[in-house]
Design goal:
It contains 16 helices and 25 strands. With 488 residues, the chain is α+β, with helices and mostly antiparallel strands. It folds into two domains: 14-244 and 470-487, Glutamine Phosphoribosylpyrophosphate, subunit 1, domain 1; 268-319 and 330-438, 3-Layer(aba) Sandwich (Rossmann fold).
Length: 488
């Protein structure tokens, strides 16, 4: 299904960092960010260094809307970081677009971050009490302020200070005038991959799919609590604080990451096919065709078809351009819901018993509309099969999926949910079915949204908008290329 639909968790963010000797770092970062566009569509930004000064540009919108030839030509340098944003902490506003830029007596710093700090308010208030001034309401600036306070001790010490005090999920790329740093939180909840770029360059990105467009070569994923540092001496790795176990987000494998990316030594496409195979074993049914919800349901539907011996058939075509329109639908069009995005292939559907394969159900509204669409097109039966286990708990680590009261599986049993969405039968993949498809034990994943077991303890009554409350109502932040001015 299309990213960000009501029945799918909203995207996170994508980060990039690269060093490209004798090449335009900003242009390469643009193409790497373009490959990570699926991870966030609210804003985009790039910061570059020419060895002396950090310049940057960011704005609301897609990568292709924020950057053009004129903008990129004004960002000279061989070191760069970039960011695509979907807001999880801090409002969706220009002042919170990334990279976050900070300037102090020890120099300039730009930071791009994927994830969410669960103690951001506490850390910010503590630093404000010590006289620190903040320019945004993003938890990324908390990370940046911690780093810049300790960078004079060296990058390892500065990153270790973040790892020691910042609680939550974070994959981070950092740019100084002469250095590029990447690191992951002690649990490794969010992904970060490191590799080479040409003969003497280096690349860091949220996913391996960002390497192809710029001809990069993946070396490996950073380990939880590990950092990669690129400076005049080349690339080096250092270990920081590490948890007792890794807790990689399972939803990266089910839905978020692009299917051509690789994580935990498997491609996401292959893992999703195996999820479909396990789904067919756990929830077999007698049917005529297996139909995916495009596009995210395709690999799992192929796997389901392979094991069940039920033919795979496309039953719906997705509009590739509906999200690009600037014309808001009226109430009647909104009520049509998925019909704006999906067109049924009636000749494939009519009179058929259908296995409908999708990746997740959050609120249940979109799935309900798709089931109705199939029945309206003449389907005889619609058996819904979902490759994510029931989502019963909210995420506080960087995924904006819903509050617990909005989660369909938290309010209804499988039988009740089946009745609500109008399907003939409904089956969810088990946690074991999902993790074995990836090829890792359950203990290597964060499963909080399925089990309620949060690997990083979450404060009571935590709200992603709480960070807004600590910012001054009198602040007006004006962002221009290469400059942030704070007016009071």
């Amino acid at each position: 299904m299309t990213q960000g639909d009501a029945d799918h968790p909203k995207e996170e963010c994508g980060v990039v960092g690269l060093y490209s000797p004798n090449r335009e770092a900003a242009r390469l970062t643009f193409f790497a960010l373009f490959a990570l566009q699926h991870r966030g569509q609210e804003s985009a930004g790039i910061a570059v260094s020419d060895g002396e000064k950090v310049r940057w540009h960011k704005n609301m919108g897609l990568v292709s809307q924020v950057f053009d030839e004129e903008v990129l030509s004004g960002l000279p340098g061989e070191l760069a970081i970039g960011h695509n944003r979907y807001s999880t902490t801090g409002a969706s506003a220009l002042r919170n677009a990334q990279p976050i830029f900070c300037q102090s007596v020890v120099g300039e710093l730009a930071v791009a971050h994927n994830g969410n700090l669960i103690n951001a308010v506490e850390l910010r208030r503590s630093m404000e009490n010590e006289g620190e001034k903040f320019d945004s309401t993003s938890d990324t600036e908390v990370i940046a302020r911690i780093l810049i306070r300790h960078l004079s001790k060296g990058p390892e010490a500065a990153v270790n200070e973040v790892l020691k005090v910042a609680k939550g999920a974070y994959s981070v790329t950092v740019l100084t005038p002469r250095m590029l740093i990447g690191f992951r939180d002690p649990f490794g909840v969010r992904p970060l991959v490191v590799g080479t770029l040409g003969e003497d360059g280096y690349l860091m990105a949220s996913e391996s799919c960002a390497f192809g467009p710029v001809a990069g070569q993946v070396l490996r994923e950073l380990e939880p609590g590990e950092m990669a540092i690129v400076d005049k001496n080349g690339l080096r790795f250092a270990k920081g604080s590490v948890s007792n176990r890794p807790a990689m987000c399972l939803f990266e494998f089910i839905y978020f990451a692009r299917p051509d990316s690789a994580m935990y030594d498997t491609t996401l496409y292959a893992a999703r096919e195996r999820m479909g195979e396990n789904l067919a074993k756990e929830h077999p049914i007698d049917a005529d065709i297996v139909v995916p919800v495009p596009d995210s349901g395709i690999p799992a539907a192929l796997g389901y078809s392979r094991v069940s011996k039920i033919p795979f058939r496309e039953g719906m075509m997705k509009s590739r351009y509906i999200h690009r329109t600037f014309i808001a639908p009226d109430q009647n069009m909104r009520e049509l819901g998925v019909r704006l995005k999906l067109t049924p292939l009636k000749e494939h559907i009519e009179g058929k018993r259908i296995v409908l394969v999708d990746d997740s159900i959050v609120r249940g509204t979109t799935t309900r509309q798709i089931v109705k669409l199939l029945f309206d097109s003449g389907a005889k039966e619609v058996h819904v099969r979902i490759t994510a286990p029931p989502i019963q708990f909210p995420c506080f680590y960087g995924i904006d999926m819903a509050t617990k009261s909005e989660l369909a599986a938290a309010r209804m049993s499988v039988q009740e949910l089946n009745k609500y969405i109008g399907s003939t039968t409904l089956g969810f993949l088990t946690i074991e079915g999902a993790t074995t498809a990836v090829g890792q034990p359950k203990s290597h994943f964060c499963l909080a949204c399925f089990s309620g077991d949060y690997p990083i303890p979450v404060p009571e009554n935590l709200n992603k908008d709480a960070f807004e409350d600590v910012s001054s109502a009198d602040e007006l932040v004006t962002v221009q290329q290469g400059q942030m001015t704070l007016f009071s």
